[in-house]
Design a protein that fits this description.
By secondary structure, the chain is of the alpha+beta class. It has helices at 2-38, 72-86, 97-103, 121-129, 134-145, 148-161, 178-181, 199-212, 216-220, 288-302; strands at 44-49, 55-59, 92-94, 118-120, 168-169, 196-197, 224-227, 230-233, 251-259, 263-271, 277-283.
Length: 307
């Protein structure tokens, strides 16, 4: 009798385990199916937990491609690193005539800089981060390394140090393709060369930047910011004030990008109160903000660490 009861219990346990396993597989399949649906427009995607390095989803994540202004994340990392190490936030940087001219070109500039005028490193950092100013990003690079060429070499050296050298090659501090930079005598590599970075590599750079300077989200979260007589517009529509803002997913950064070659690119970051930070990278996705908002919701509903 005892043996029969024991056997019955073992059968019951086996059935429960089987049902749980089937439910788990079903839930996993549903999650993957939903994430794939949200990524049908992107050329590449990478989603990670910044604190644990767990990967929640990836698609073509190791392939190098044009990334537009999201490449500025490496520029910001190196500029912030120097600013912190040298107490350089208030140091002044003089703007060249070529960078001032570029800033006035509405297709290449979003924040007007004056020739021979000096701006603080912090002002240029905010213009780069919030307004995605190409001229400000290049000026920061020149401040860090003396010349644009020296800075580009430093960007590639830092990629090697991060362990992403095979997935990131930089020729531009701003993210612009070289054919836009050549008329302003900002040249590194061939006329038709451009930054080539993978979605995974961008996530790594974003993670390193956030760890180096967690307070960056206090600036990156602004959809509008007033500085030096100009209103800077952040094109991250997931932020408060944006068309895709959702309060419950707590997006607070980080960097957008667009060129005709790269398409719409977005590196965003979100942190639920008391939980780990999540980074999502989508490249060449015309519905980037909408797709990412749905991804955040699904991740937070699915994984126990966010319950």
């Amino acid at each position: 009798m005892i043996k029969q009861v024991r056997n019955a219990m073992m059968v019951l346990i086996a059935v429960v385990i089987f049902i749980s396993s089937v439910a788990s597989v079903s839930a996993s399949a549903d999650y993957n199916s939903q994430m794939a649906k949200y990524n049908k427009h992107s050329s590449a995607t990478y989603v990670m937990n910044m604190d644990t390095n767990q990967v929640y989803y990836q698609k073509n994540a190791d392939t190098k491609r044009a990334v537009a202004s999201t490449a500025k994340l490496m520029t910001l990392y190196l500029a912030v690193q120097k600013a912190q190490n040298t107490n350089g936030w208030n140091q002044k940087v003089k703007i060249s005539k070529s960078l001032a001219k570029m800033s006035r070109n509405k297709s290449l500039g979003s924040y007007v800089l004056k020739a021979n005028h000096s701006y603080t490193v912090r002002n240029l950092y905010r213009a780069t981060l919030i307004a995605s100013s190409n001229s400000a990003a290049i000026a920061l690079g020149q401040w860090v390394s003396g010349t644009n060429n020296n800075f580009i070499r430093l960007m590639n050296e830092q990629a090697q140090a991060f362990g992403i050298g095979s997935e990131a090659r930089f020729v531009s501090a701003s993210g612009l393709e070289n054919y836009d930079l050549y008329p302003y005598y900002i040249r590194y590599g061939g006329r038709y060369d451009y930054n080539r970075v993978s979605a995974k590599a961008l996530a790594v750079i974003a993670s390193q930047l956030l760890k180096l300077y967690p307070a960056i989200v206090n600036d990156a979260k602004y959809y509008r910011y007033y500085q030096s007589g100009q209103t800077m517009h952040n094109t991250n529509e997931l932020l408060q004030g944006g068309l895709r803002y959702v309060p419950s997913i707590f997006v607070d950064g980080l960097k957008t990008g667009y060129t005709p070659l790269a398409g719409n690119c977005l590196v965003s970051t979100s942190q639920l109160p008391g939980k780990n930070r999540v980074i999502i990278v989508t490249l060449n996705d015309r519905y980037e903000a909408y797709d990412q908002s749905r991804m955040y919701k699904l991740i937070y509903q699915t994984f126990p660490e966010f319950k």
